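go over this chain:
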Amino acid sequence: MFNKKIILITGGTGSFGSSFIEYIIKKKIPYKEIRILSRDEKKQDDLRRVLNLEKIKFFLGDVRDLSNSDFIFHNVDYVFHASAYKQVPSCEFFPMEAYKTNVLGTENVLQKSIQHKVKSVVCLSTDKAVYPINAMGISKAMMEKIALSKSLLKQNHTNICVTRYGNVLASRGSVVPLFINQILQNKPVTVTNLEMTRFLMPMNDAIKLVLYALKNGNNGDLFVRKTPSAKIITVLEALFDIFKKKNHKIKIIGNRHGEKLHESLLTAEEAARCLEQNNYFKITSDHRNMNYGLYYSQGLTKKKNKKEYSSNNINILTVKKVKKLLLKLNIIKKNI
C-alpha cells in the first residue's frame, strides 16, 4: 500500500507518529518517503537521531498556519492527521488554543490536501468527541464535522475519513505511566474514582485501525475498532500484582473537572446505523446535500434503537486479562 508512496504525518513526533514509523520499519513496509510535520524542534531532533534514516524528512511548522507549506504537501499520497492538543486540563484553561489547533488546524490540513490532490487523508479523533463535556472533546468533535463537510465537496481526488479511538495504553499523558511512577516511588496512587471505566487500546491496535481506514474507507467514513475496557481499580490491581505491591496505598481525589465516569466510542445514534466489519465499526457518511428539507421537514422512517458503545456496557476485562495487556508494554518491561 505504501510502496513508492510519500506519506505525511502531522504531529508526527507524538505518540502515534513515532510508533507508526517504528511499526513501518519493524514490519519492513516499503515506502518512498515519510514526511513529519511538527512544531517541536527538540522532539524532531530526538526522533531524527533515533531513526537516522534518509527517507524520513522533518519539517518544522504548525498546522495553524500552512500558508507557506506547499512544498510539504507537494506530491504527497497519504496524510495522517495526528496533530492536536489532547490534554483535557490544558484545553479547559485555554479553549481557544484547542480550537486553533484542533479545528482550524484540521481545516488547513484538509484544504492543503485537497489543493495538492492527496489521494487519502485519515484524521485521528478520540472517544472524548462523543457526547463531549470538555473543551478538548468539543474541539475534536468539530474536527470530525470539518472532515465530514470536506468529504461532501464535489471533488473526487481526495478521500477523507476519520478514526476514533480511546486511551492508548502507556501513551504520553495517560494514567498507566503515572501509576507506575507513583508505585515505584512508593507514593500513594492518586485515583479520581475506582469505579471509573476506560477503554484500553494497545498502540499497535490504534495503528491497525488507521491502516484499516486508509485501505477500506470511502469519503466521509468514520471507523472505530472494537476495544476492551476495564475499571480503574482493575488496572491498579493488575499493576500492584506485576510490581508485587499488594498493599500499596490508594488516594481517592475525586472526579476532575471535565472528566467522565465512563467513555463512549459510538453514540446511540451512530450505533444504530453503523456496519460491523470483523473487529471494526464503520459509520458511513449520509452524503447529505444542501437540501435543507433533510434537516427541517424530512426524517428517517425506519430507525433501529441501540445503546451507545461505552466503556461500561461492553465486556469489561478481568485483572488477569489487564495484566496480560500491561505485560506487553515496554514501560513495564523496563521496570520489572
Notes: The longest strand covers residues 120-126. The chain is about 40% helix and 20% strand. The mean pLDDT is 90. The domain at 6-165+202-226+265-292 is CATH 3.40.50.720 (Rossmann fold).
